[in-house]
Amino acid sequence: MNLSNLKPAEGSTKNRKRIGRGTGSGRGGTSTRGHKGAGSRSGTSTKVGFEGGQMPLQRRLPKVGFKNINRVEYVGINLDVLQGLAEKFNLSAINFDTLKEHGLISKNDLVKILGRGELKAKLDVTAHAFTATAQKAIESAGGAIVKL
Q1: Angle at the Cα of 109 (from 103 to 114), degrees rounded to 5?
Q2: Strand boundaries in the chain, DSSP class E
Q3: Which DSSP state fits 15?
Q4: Is the pLDDT of residue 38 over 90?
Q5: CA distance readout (Å), 148 to 2, 70, 96
Q6: How far apart are CA 33 and CA 30, in angstroms?
Q7: What is the pLDDT of residue 59?
Q8: pTM as predicted
Q9: d(CA 127, CA 112)
Q10: What are the beta bridge partners of residue 124?
Q11: 124 phi and psi, to 5 degrees?
């Protein structure tokens, strides 16, 4: 046996039904397109979601919600993450570049420091926003905050 004489298993493949090959084939005449109408002509296509004139699903369902185009999205980083960074890499200041360097944020992100966890290290933290609990925890540990 080699590649030149391989073939599919018996009964696993079938010939496709060829349309428009004369009346004797059983699929001649209108070639499965029916009589008249746009669908019987060449060059037609239906819109995405078209349901034959029935009210489409996307129009039957009610509109839900509201997207605020002025929303400002922050990447939240908690105090326990900052504490872990400070211990692991022996840092005294954490800024945007430090967080980017360690893969916590990407270049277009806005950073908000959140208050989960405990901060023991004295850190100077630079970020776009701080929660009240995070700000209090950083300052009580002897650190300082700088808003970008």
Answers
A1: 80
A2: 74-78, 93-94, 110-114, 124-127, 129-130, 144-147
A3: P
A4: no
A5: 69, 19, 9
A6: 6
A7: 95
A8: 0.59
A9: 6
A10: 93, 144
A11: -100, 110
